Amino acid sequence: MSRPPAETGNVPAHDGDADKLLEIVQRTVTELRPQAAQGLRVTLHSVLDRDLGVDSLTRVELWSRIEHEFGVRLPQELFASASTPEDVLHVLQHRQATQSRLPRHTNHSGEPATGEHQTPDAAPTLIEVLDWHVRRHPGKTHVRLLGDDEQPEDISYDALQQGALAVAAGLQRGGLLAGQAVALMLPTGRDFLLGFFGILLAGGIPVPIYPPLRLSQIEDHLQRQAGILRNAEARVLITVTEARLLAQLLRPLVPSLARIASVAELGGEGREYAAPVRQPDDIAFLQYTSGSTGQPKGVMVSHANLLANLRAMGTALQVGPGDLFVSWLPMYHDMGLIGAWLGSLYYGFNLVLMSPLAFLSRPARWLWAIDRFHGTLSAAPNFAYELCLNKLADSDLEGLDLSSWRLALNGAEPVSPATLQRFAERFARYGLASTALMPVFGLAEGTLGVSFPPLGRGPLVDRVQREAFQLRGQALAPAAEDSATLRFVSCGRPLPGHQIRIVDDHRVELPERREGHLQFSGPSTTSGYYRAPEETARVLRDGWMDSLDLAYMADGEVYLTGRAKDLIIRAGRNIYPYDVETAVGNLPGLRKGCVAVFGSRDAASGTDRLVVMAEAQEQEEGALQRLRQEVNRILVDLAGVPPDDIVLVPAHSVLKTSSGKIRRAACRELYERGEAGRPRLAPWRQVLRLLLQAMRGHLGRGWQAFRALSYAVYIWLLFWLVTPLTWLGVAILPHRSGCRAFVHWAARLFIRLAGVPFSVEGLEHLPRNGASVLAANHASYLDGVILCAALPPRFGFVAKRELAGQWIPSLFLRKLGAFFVERFDLQRSVADSETLERALRAGQSLLFFPEGTFTREPGLRAFHMGAFVLAANTAVPLLPVAIRGTRTVLRDGQWFPLRGAIHVSVCAPLRAEGPGWPESIRLRDATRAVLLERLDESERSLSFS
Questions:
Q1: Are residues 721 and 748 in the same domain?
Q2: Buried b / exposed e along 647-657 (16+ C-beta atoms within 10 A)
């Protein structure tokens, strides 16, 4: 594996000419392939056609610009022979010695030369962020891993990249394709870091999931992870060697899972690595929501989302290379992955990283690490600050110095005003400034951060009247003597470039101090949930994402009040579970942080029943009864109504997410099934039940495989029956019109006999008279058959010239009036374009596949310019044609047809305003935009070039 070559290659002189030439090539290719603009790296060694997608017409425009801006005449033979910009540069340097230059033109980009930055502000993807640091300081320490022995293991930027490249090579050797998901079930450590970036470098999509913590919960854990893996369609699971046997139980539950491997195995399998092209809008990773309010959903976080959020958070927090982040946060959680690791990567400051178990077993290790390494940044959920308050004695903190800790971020779960106050008071004696405490709001759907308070102010707590808030949602200031109040913490203002609004149930924006649904928008907002369009449509509309949180605004700042799904309406009052859980959890005899309050629908009355589930340390019935009385009293005091049921359960019965949040929806399901408090099955019985379930899965998939095989055999038998008859009919029929009509009928018969749901719309857009150009996306070998069936039989296909030399397809296509064009001989390709132009002017309509070819990966490839130049020069209408479903039915590289619906959309005609290259580019861009709107979500979400 080798790093990418230098930008200007190995040219000893005329560096200015090399830079100028590369700028012209970059600009030209960028105009022709705007979807690849930010991720494209042009070097002197880039192959024009293979690496940059420069076809014959593009080359004509490129040659014109080079000659114009250098003031030279390039030899005619160079047009066809030049393979790289370096070939052109050698000729330019020779010609400039003998020719006078024409007046120099200004740079089309208009961008001034940029100097050295402290951060990779121009990086379009996370991969370029790492490249940026490796080029500038490869040996600088990036992460310091703290193990049990407290001795740090340093990882430099170069070590991270080289280790990740080894993993990427192993993944590619195993057949991983660009855009496929790879799950990471690894603890915090070197393997996670290398695995995550290795997946990115291989072109895959990382899916961080958490490993099992306790054997007693293995069944619930594996069932939840199987749901994530199925939704992500993960091809590979990377995990620790010790967990591979256990992970095998997931394979029968996840049909897409082809391999389970460790980082060491992948890194030792080979060194052949091919760098895929990655774009800003590509998915950087899938962040699955914690599931505290329902089924986990995969949030699609693009590179653009991620970098926009990192840049906005960095601006708000004024971070820089001089900072140091200390983190124990899990790497599968967005606060640990993005806030701690990727934030430190982007801004180039050190990250001291320890295991979450290290903190949970000894919370003091977190604070002492901040002291030892002079940490300036650290973040944690509210429970971590509470744990430090309750579990650490003064003797544990003797000599502690927290004066370097300038930002103590508190987020990921509801922030308690009492915790903030107590933490500030206790740790002030150890040098912690009260202004360092920073409650923040964020969520996976916003990449991470959504709102931050201003620096240096400290927490802001708002007191409101309880009655007015619970009954009417009004956050009114109470009288000084009023004790019936609620307290909420400000999470600040929206990040730079982002917006927040509070709306009612009808999406009408509310005034300040009125509780409603919090919605946000901005460049960090996800495009939705992976393979869950219905869920996406439910929360994302017109660019505004519903956070499913309830909140109000006051003086422009956000105050979170609860989760919309968790809100319980009882006796006309809004009851917020978190407040009740916190109060109940403080009762002696109950386990703090192990209380779930939820509403259970009463079918008879149609209202919510208020249920409290709490883990009790006591087991004696008298003690349990007293606890129930105390819980009842607290509910009446806080909510104004008594609970309908109080369920006291043994330890570890209240279900939580990996980050410690109460899974209220799961607890409600457990309660409604009557299983709350029941002892869990022994681990061997859970494993046995999983094995039985796996066997049933194997049998079910076996039956499905048999049906699929039977269908495939039938389709191929049908193909070999219909195809020869169709070819023979075309060969016999004397007239082109008859041949086209016969093929149209045969294609429709084949589709009908194949049982493929098939539909066509937009035929009314086809011009009744005169020629036109059709530009269709290309996804499968089926596309030609589908278009023959969908379109009236008057279009001439434009095919590659290689088919003209093959007797069987050549005879068939010639009888249909197809035109053959050259793809490799550039001069002949230009001549073929002139032939096509004459055909259009004579009234022959033409059908193009502008992508030229297809691959198995979803998304539109870069367009060749031929169809658009012809349409502009001949002033004929161009109609985009969107074909949906053929890639699913018969994907490239497989000969096993699958069942699936196919739909063809003929879109409204587009017209160029005149001939010429700029109008051709505009026509191409408009066609691409129309096709992207019409294609399936799976076709649009990953756009490769």
A1: yes
A2: bbbeeebbbbb
Instruction: Let me know: does 380 contact 438? Beta carbons within 8 Å.
Output: no
Which region among 65-79, 457-471, 864-878 has the lowest average model confidence (pLDDT)? 65-79
In the predicted model, what is the mean pLDDT of residues 86-105? 59
Task: Report the CATH number at residue 55.
Answer: 1.10.1200.10
**Are 352 and 378 spatial neighbours (Cβ–Cβ below 8 Å)?**
no
Same domain, 573 and 557: no
Q: What is the pLDDT of residue 248?
A: 76
Of residues 419, 435, 325, 444, the one with CA closest to residue 379: 325
Q: Quick one: how many helices (H) and strands (E) in the chain?
A: 31, 35
CA distance 553 to 507: 16
Distance of CA 372 to the CA centre of its chain: 36
φ and ψ at 418, to 5 degrees? -65, -40
Helix (H) or strand (E) holding 346: helix 343-347
Token pair listed for 668: 């409600």
Residue 629 and residue 511 in one domain: no
Task: Indicate whether 861 belongs to any domain.
Answer: yes
Same domain, 775 and 903: yes
Query: What's the CA gap between 942 and 277, in Å, rounded?
Result: 12
Distance of alpha carbon 780 from alpha carbon 897, whole angstroms: 11
Shared domain for 814 and 901, answered yes or no, is: yes
Mark whether 507 and 623 lie in a shared domain: no
Q: Which two structure tokens, joined as six digits, stand for 336?
A: 């640990």
Q: Which amino acid is at 454?
A: P
The token pair that represents 3 in the structure block: 């790093």
How far from 872 is each of 268, 767, 835, 918, 919, CA to CA, in Å? 54, 17, 15, 10, 7
pLDDT of the residue at 108: 32
Q: What digits encode the pLDDT tens for the residues 735-786? A: 999 999 999 999 999 999 999 899 999 999 999 888 999 999 998 889 999 9
Question: In which element (H, E) is residue 541 found?
Answer: strand 540-541
Residue 376 one-letter amino acid: T
Residue span of the structural domain in which 483 resides = 461-563
CA separation for the pair 100, 445 (Å, rounded): 59
DSSP state of 340: I
pLDDT in tens, 494-528: 999 899 999 988 888 888 899 999 999 999 999 99
Shared-domain flag, residues 658 and 757: no
pLDDT in tens, 459-485: 999 999 988 887 888 999 998 888 888
Q: What is the domain count for the chain?
A: 4
Structure tokens at 112: 């001034």
The pLDDT value given to residue 577: 78
In a domain, 794, yes or no: yes
- Distance (Å, whole) CA 511 – CA 326: 39
Which 3 state secondary structure label does DSSP give 592?
strand
Q: Are residues 559 and 577 in the same domain?
A: no
Which residue pairs, CB below 8 angstroms and at least 24 apart, start in 690-698?
690/218, 690/219, 690/222, 690/249, 691/249, 693/252, 693/253, 694/249, 694/251, 694/252, 694/253, 695/252, 697/252, 697/253, 698/252
Which range has the worst mean pLDDT, 92-106, 147-161, 318-332?
Answer: 92-106
Contact between 746 and 725 under an 8 Å Cβ cutoff? The reply is yes
* CA angle at 202 for the pair 201 and 208, rounded to the nearest 5°: 80
**Which of 710-714, 833-837, 889-893 bottoms out in mean pLDDT, i.e. has the lowest?**
889-893
Residue 207 covered by a domain: no
C-alpha angle 32-33-38 in degrees, rounded to nearest 5: 130
Q: Which two tokens stand for residue 495?
A: 């990040």
Does the pLDDT at position 685 exceed 80?
no
For residues 559 and 580, what is the distance between their CA atoms, to the nearest angstrom? 18
pLDDT band at 286 (very low <50, low <70, confident <90, very high): very high
Tell the residue number behind the tokens 């290719």, with chain if given.
29
**pTM of the predicted model, to two decimals?**
0.58
pLDDT of residue 893: 66
Distance CA 894, CA 938 (A): 18
